[in-house]
Amino acid sequence: MVNFLGNFFGNILGMTPSKPHIVILGAGFGGLFAARAMAHLDARITLVDRHNYHLFQPLLYQVATAGLPPSDISWPVRSILSQQRNVSVLMDEITGVDTTRRQVLLRSSNPEHVHLEYDYLVVATGSRHSYFGHDEWQTAAPGLKSVDDATLIRRRILLAFERAEMLDNDSAATAEREKLLRFIIVGGGPTGVELAGTIAELARHTLAADFRRIDPRNARVSLIEAGDRILPAFQPVSSTYAEKALQKLGVEVLTGVRVTNCDADGVAVDSAAGPQRIAAATVIWAAGVKASPVGRWLNVETDRAGRIPVASDLSVKGLERVFVIGDAATVLDTDGKPVPGIAPAAKQQGRYVGELITASILQQPAPPAFVYRHAGNLATIGRKSAVIEFPGLRLSGRLAWWIWGIAHIYFLLGVPSPLVISFRWLWEYLTYGRGARLITGVEEAD
Questions:
Q1: What structural domains and CATH numbers belong to the chain?
Q2: Using only C-alpha atoms, what is the Rg of the chain?
């Protein structure tokens, strides 16, 4: 309050004006790299997120399959930005944006924070699951976007084996046991491929000796993709390699198959062979995403996935000093194609917006239009193979798996103890260990 009154009367009396206030919504890759790009700017930066941690999403599937604990891929935002004195962090939920008054509306119990005024606004709130108009499927088929999602999926996977172990060994329980030991992943992108391969290895190796009445190796994993091949963003040769690698792990790869319904007993699908019902106790959704409600907040039009089309400087048309980046934005590259919603793209956009705002505040020439530099596509298939596509180079197999691991540990954001995670991965690689096989939490259906 003292600072507010001082700035208020200082402006009236012609004294030194208050520092520009930059509000960043979202502590993902885009938001954090925007903040870091303004580390030396004489301004006030407020970063708002509903969680107090930054999540390393590329490794989220490892938590969902009991490979890593959540604490290995999540770090407190305040800790990450603790040395950047021009940044304040608010853990709060966004309810809207008043672009006329230049205020962010928060669901806060602190009256000073309910209306957060800004001079510049950066929206980097990411995406959530898209069920293509069937949000009722979410209960039966959770997606993988948060730590809570990952621990819920881990719980369901491990409980399926535990419940199968408890069934009697008679013919009456056969159908129920088969349903419990059937795992379906919907969506053949990198997340779906990584989940399918890792669940197959979990059943065939990690859990193989842990049970007495069931053989976990009898578990069936099915990967369902509506398109004609998995990993559609990759070259066809990489898709073919990935499909064969999954099949070697025992994964059933179903392409050209569209899911028409999801419920607690499995999925209904439609394909060239006609409609079919697949019974499964565990269904995981990896088929689509949509942006956070940024279009509603800013009262602007969006595309079908809820993303806001932005200008070449990542600003929103008709809104002064408002920028949208990452999964919440539709950004076109130099060929007119949408920039992929991956971590390197969000990092580049965040850094660009930070530099642009810095130039604006310092009254310097603005940087040229944003240009996305594609670093490549990466996807892992179990513990022994991966596919990597760098500009001018394509790799697959075990070497690609190691490069994939190094890239994720060292070249993305915020790993405080890379050697610890590296040694943990190496130990799991040699022993098929899964050190985070904890069943935690309670669901209403339990």
A1: 2-50+92-129+290-361 (3.50.50.60), 135-287+384-431 (3.50.50.100)
A2: 24
pLDDT tens for each residue of 228-250:
999 999 999 999 999 999 999 99
- With bands split at pLDDT 50, 70 and 90, how would you rate the model's confidence at 3? very low
Q: Is the pLDDT of residue 406 over 50?
A: yes
Written as six digits, the tokens of 353 are 């917006």
194 is catalytic: yes
| Catalytic residue of the set 117, 194, 225, 252 | 194
Q: What is the pLDDT of residue 141?
A: 97
Nearest residue to 245 via CA among 60, 379, 64 = 379
Alpha carbon distance 296, 288 (integer Å): 20
Lowest mean pLDDT among 28-42, 184-198, 372-386: 372-386
Picking from 219, 249, 248, the residue whose alpha carbon sits closest to that of residue 158 is 219
Q: What is the 3-state secondary structure (H, E, C) of the chain?
A: CHHHHHHHHHHHCCCCCCCCEEEEECCCHHHHHHHHHCCCCCCEEEEEECCCEEECHHHHHHHHCCCCCHHHCEEEHHHHCCCCCCEEEEECCEEEEECCCCEEEECCCCCCCCEEECCEEEECCCEEECCCCCHHHHCCCCCCCCHHHHHHHHHHHHHHHHHHHHCCCCHHHHHHHHHHCEEEEECCCHHHHHHHHHHHHHHHHHCCCCCCCCCHHHCEEEEEECCCCCCCCCCHHHHHHHHHHHHHCCEEEEECCEEEEEECCEEEEEECCEEEEEECCEEEECCCEEECCHHHHHCCCCCCCCCEECCCCCECCCCCCEEECHHHEECECCCCCECCCCHHHHHHHHHHHHHHHHHHHCCCCCCCCCCCCCCCEEEEECCCEEEEEECCEEEEEHHHHHHHHHHHHHCCCCCCCHHHHHHHHHHHHHHCCCCCCCCCCCCCCC
Which residue, 107, 423, 421, 134, is CA-closest to 285? 134
In this predicted structure, the answer to whether residue 113 has a pLDDT above a threshold of 70 is: no
Q: Note the pLDDT tens digit of each residue in 20-60.
A: 999 999 999 999 999 999 999 999 999 999 999 999 888 89
